[in-house]
Amino acid sequence: MSKYRLWMTIALVLTLLTACTGNESGGAAQGSSVTSPSGESGEQTGNFKKLGDEPITLSFYSTSGTFPDVEFNTLIADPIKEKYPNVTIERITPAATTTPEEVLSTHVPDIIYSSSSSHQRIIRTGAYEDLRQLIERHQFDDSRIKPILYDYIKEMSKGEEIYAIPFNANQHVLYYNKDIFDKFGVEYPSNEQMTWDEVLEIAEKLTRTENGVNYIGLSVDNLTGLAKGLGLPYVDKETGNAALDTPEWHRIFELNKRIFDIQGYVTPDGTWNWGRDQFMKDQVIAMRVTWLANMVGPLEELRQQGVEFNWDIAPAPNFEDQLGKTREAQIHSLSVNSQSEYKDEAFQVISEILSDEGQRILARNGRVPAIINEELESEYGLDIPVLQGKTVENVFIGEPLQEHYIHPYELEITQRLTEAAEDMAVKGLDVNSAIRKATDAINKDVETLRTTLGDL
To answer: Any transmembrane segments, and where (predicted)?
Structure first.
C-alpha cells in the first residue's frame, strides 16, 4: 500500500471516530485537516489547518548566530513558499541593540532560530514550546538527527523537555587568503589536518608589515575559539564556578599566548583582536579558524556586492594528540514559540526544513545538514556561488566534537575570557596570572548571577 493510501485510510478511520464521539470541548473543529509526514494532505482530527489552505503568515526571529538575509531567503523563506504558496515566512528584524528578551516581550515570533549563544537566555523567557507533543502528533522522525546535535538539545533542559530541533551543524574550518600567501611566497596550508605547531610556523612567516599594511598570519577567535578544540566548559556544570584551572585550559591559554607573542601580531596602536571584517573586507588576515556559518553567508553577501578575493578552505587544526578530531559542532536550531497561535503550522514548517529535500537545500548552499545522510556531503556547496572552486571536501575532515554543556551562567561570564585574552595580548600577563584573574572575576560574577537569576 502506498504512503498516500495508508495515510488516507488512517485519516478516514479517525474521521469516523470523530463523527462517533462528536465535537467535544478541546476536540477538533469539524473538517479540520493537516499535512501528513509524506507531504500529502488529508482530513484528520487536530485544531489546526493544513498548510495548503488559506493564506498564512508565520513570523521568524533569529536570536543569535550569523544568519544574513540571503541565507534566510535561500534556506527557509523561498523553499517554504515554493512548497506551500499560501505560506509566507516573515522575518522580524529588530535594531541591532535590541536584546532577545526585549524582542520576545513585545513580539510573538512563531518560529525562533537560536544557537548555543542564546539557548539558555531564551529558556529563561519561557518562549520555547516543549516540542514533544508536536513531535508525536506530526510523526516527526527525530532518529534522523545527528546524535551529537540532538544529545546537546536534550541536555539543555532540566527535565525531559525538547525545546528545539537542530537546523544545521555549524562546524569549523581554516579559511585562508591565497593572495596573501602568494604575495609573500608561502606555501598554502595542507589539505591534511595540521597541528597547531605547523600552523603557527606558517603564521609567523605571514605576520608582517608591508607598505604600511599590517598583515596578520592567524586569527583563531581567541580563548573561546581555541577551547572548542577540546570541548571545554567555562564553568562547572554542577557548581557554576569557574572551570579554568585545569590542565586542558592551561594548554589553551598557553597556545593563545604563543599566538599573541608572534612578532607584529599586536600592532603598535594595541590592536590585537582580529576577526571576520579583517579577513573579508580589509583582507589582511592570512588564515582564520572559525565557524562555517560565520563566514560563508557573509562572503556570499559580499560577493553579491561585487567584492571577491582569492580564498579557500583547509581543515581546522588541532593539537598533535587530537588529530582526527576538530572543534565542537555548534547547534543552530529551530523552535516553536510557546505563545504562538500557529504551533502546529510552525512545526510543520520546521519538519519540512528537516526533510531530506529541505536539508539538501542547506547542504548545497553551504551549511552542514543536521540529519544523518552521507549523500548530502557530496552535494555540499554546489548551489552557492561563493563556494564554487573551493576545496569544500575539507569541511568534513576531522570528527566534530559534541558541543559542551552550556551552563545558564556561561553566556554572562564569557566577557571574562575576552578580558583574559586582552591581558595576555596587550598587558603581557603570563598564563598563570591570567587564569587566576579570570577565575576570580568569574566566581564574583557567579555570586551576582545567583542573586539575580537564582541557583539555576
So the answer is: none
For residue 296, what are the β-bridge partners? none
**Bridge partners for 176 per DSSP:** 287, 312
306-309 long-range Cβ contacts below 8 angstroms, 24+ apart: 307/281, 309/177, 309/179, 309/283
Q: Would you state the pLDDT for residue 102?
A: 95
Other Cβ atoms less than 10 A from the Cβ of 136: the count is: 9
What would the pLDDT profile of 427-455 be if each residue is shown by its tens digit? 999 999 999 999 999 999 999 998 887 66
pLDDT at 2: 40
Domains and CATH numbers, the chain: 35-170+330-386 (3.40.190.10), 172-329+399-452 (3.40.190.10)
Cα–Cα distance, 339 to 108 (Å, whole number): 7
Nearest-10 crossing angle of helices 196-206, 247-260: 20
- Strand 325-336 relative to strand 311-315, pairing: unpaired
Q: How many residues does the chain have?
A: 456
**Residue holding cell 470541548?**
25
Asked if residues 307 and 93 have their Cβ atoms less than 8 Å apart, the reply is no
| Letter string b/e over residues 184-205, b meaning 16 or more CB atoms within 10 A of that residue's CB | eeeeebeeebbebeebbebbbe
Long-range contacts of 4-10 (CB under 8 A, 24+ apart): 4/38, 4/40, 7/36, 7/38, 7/40, 7/42, 8/40, 8/42, 10/44
Q: Please state, in angstroms and as integers, the Cα–Cα distance from residue 408 to each residue in 28, 235, 240, following that order.
A: 39, 10, 8
CB 171 within 8 Å of CB 291? yes
pTM of the model: 0.83
SS3 of residue 209 by DSSP: strand
Residue 363 CA to residue 384 CA, distance in Å, equals 10
C-alpha cell read off for 25: 470541548
d(CA 271, CA 422): 10
- Strands across the sheet with 287-291, in order? 287-291, 172-177, 311-315
Closest CA to 61 of 40, 90, 32, 84: 90
Give the separation between CA 386 and CA 221, rounded to whole angstroms.
Answer: 23
Q: Mark the ranges of the chain whose per-residue pLDDT is less than 50.
A: 1-46
| Nearest one of 353, 411, 358 to 111, comparing CA atoms | 353
Please give the pLDDT value at position 442.
97
The pLDDT of residue 195 is: 98
d(CA 280, CA 438): 31
